[in-house]
What does this fold into?
Amino acid sequence: MATDTASTSSASRRPSFHHPSLSQWQSVSILAGAAIMLSLAMGMRQSLGLFMQPVTKDIGISAADFAFALAIQNIVWGISQPFAGALVDKFGTRLIALFGGLLYAGALIVTAYAHSTWMVTLGSGLMIGVALACTTSGIAAKIAAKVVRPERRSLAFGLVSAAGSIGTFFCAPLAQSVIQASGWQMAMFVFVALAAAMLPAALIGGKADKVPVDSMPGAVETMRSTLGEAANHGGYIVMAAAFFVCGLQLVFLTTHLPTFLADCGADPMLSAQALAVIGAFNVFGSWLFGWLGDRYHKPMLLGLIYLLRSAAIAVYFMSPVSQASTLVFAAIMGTLWLGVIPLVNGLVAQIFGIRYLATLTGIAFFSHQVGSFLGAWAGGVIYDVLGSYTLAWQLAAGIGAAAGVMQLFMNTRPTERVLASQRAVVGAE
It folds into this structure.
């Protein structure tokens, strides 16, 4: 009996996962809405490389033209993300997410009817870029930060990020199957239906708007002051610079791996299988690094991700390509794919608090998307000029190793405002 009483007492002292103003069911349902929205948005976006060969052959544009459209998507996403984040921080997530879902569906319709480079660039480039800023990690992170306790935020970020890969797990094989059976345009309309499913998910996730942001005692916090803190924090600058490499590596692979495998004589379905494996293993990897981020030094984990990714890219592209090597490579990359997201979000919350989390992660994400632009576009240019991806993967691996070393030594000290607030809380207790 004494043991049972002690266990009950220990369980009652264990902090719950959800915010005190929410029930466990409310917290889980809100997180699920954000996760489904993110999953569909990222799953479709990461499957667009499968459309490169059929689209270029059908409407008579080059691989570089299609890659440029995806590069525009990434840079527009990066430019839009800080503004979308600022709107979310000021007005809430629901309206911004609903707008993003509608724009996504419209973008896919424009692409489905494309007959020239400018229409592909408008639909899959400009419009999807803005839609992603309104529906993906920056928005989902703000929702997760509001509905869970501070000590569990990295895990919550990891769980929501994992959802982005579940979408790839089924979107990529679905798209490839429809492309082979009915053509790429029909596959685009299947994606339109998936974009429509993002709308109810956005409504549910948007319930996080009703959760109050925990105030910091004695803190005077405005967007201008927070941006000033970020501009003068060396660790934040290093993290944003390393994030550039993350975008370069990942978008290079999602955009150009299908073409690389086709050049190697692989079955067209292998590229879809590889993207699906990346998605499946990223579910585990995002949870893993979110869980580790609550327990270990986040910059060490970030540096490890960049270094291991770069090593995996070098080994894979230097080795003979086979189905087995491709799927093993996809599993390794999937484990390391979006593990950076919970760690970056966790570091921003740790250093600056969560009041302007979406804005600050959005600014860092702009750096990520500049890298994504170069990964998509420069990869296509190198392939068109040299006829192979050798130089492209060498650059991706080399820059990634340098970023990993930089990340290991970033400064993680919270701002003086956050430290003062923490001292005030401890003093009050």
The chain has one domain: 24-210+220-421.
